[in-house]
Amino acid sequence: MKSVKVYHYDAFSTKPDTGNPAGVVVDGELLSEAEMQEIASKVGFNETGFITKSDKADVRIRYFTPGHEMDLCGHGTIACLYGLHEHNLLPQKEYMTIETKAGVLPIKLQISDNDRLYITMKQAAPKFMEFGGSKADLAAAIGLAEDDISDVLPVMYGSTGIWTLLLPIKSLAVFKRMKPQNQLFPEILKEIPKASLHPFCLETELEHADMHARHFSSPFSGTVEDPVTGTAAGVMGAYYAEFIKKEAERPFELVIEQGLEIDRAGKVLVKVSDKERSLDIEIAGTAVYVKSMEISVNQ
């Protein structure tokens, strides 16, 4: 057996045991893909990030759920870079790049007045696809009725690196009633069976927040709910620009609140700018160290 140190960081929060937990392995270079998957399964978080060397960027990050590898993870990126910062392993510059399976992405690093690192992460160009399935089945799969779904805004698949189904909900009040049956998702999401499900609304609980959301995982990931989701927050910003306020002057910023129903409240800042023939989407946040753990893997 081999012992590997995994650092637990909570992303999109400054208070331990809130926000979104992620495992961080700073010496991922020493591990095989099978070992990475085994570690992620044993850690059990929605994502564990493994940092390795890159010949295309400053660092490479690989992201694993307990069930499979992901192309990109917003909260995993924030956690990994914050972990590198605390281990004095980040490049000493304002701008850097990370290599991911979703491409090489630029990162901006800013130290706040209270000496906390804030990380701004550019996401992949947004893509959308119409949902052609049953809204009644969709609602039932998360414990709601079809008339809880907005009849003004479209149900759309969206991606800024990872596909999720953006599901507009009429009222904030019903979010506490949601009970996902994740195993039903692939049959309902026929166009993209491995997509996650991201219900949201324009009512919020926290001051200065613009949108409220929950995020229910694909059953292939081995998890049920993601507390605060960076990639989904990013595509929500693109959805807002395309389908909610197309006339909004750009650039603009949105604050997305998530995780309140499961006592893991966190906020993601989303920046939306114009780009030639597309939108430029960035997310920003910080993280906080919680603890370290030793995980044994088979050699």
From TrEMBL:
Key words of the record: Isomerase
Name listed for the protein in its UniProt record: PhzF family phenazine biosynthesis protein
Gene Ontology cellular component terms for the protein in this record: cytoplasm
Keyword Isomerase included in the entry's annotation: yes
Gene source species: Niallia taxi
Residues at the catalytic site: 47
Pfam families: PhzC-PhzF (PF02567)
Family: Belongs to the PhzF family.
Cited InterPro entries: Phenazine_PhzF-like
GO molecular function: isomerase activity
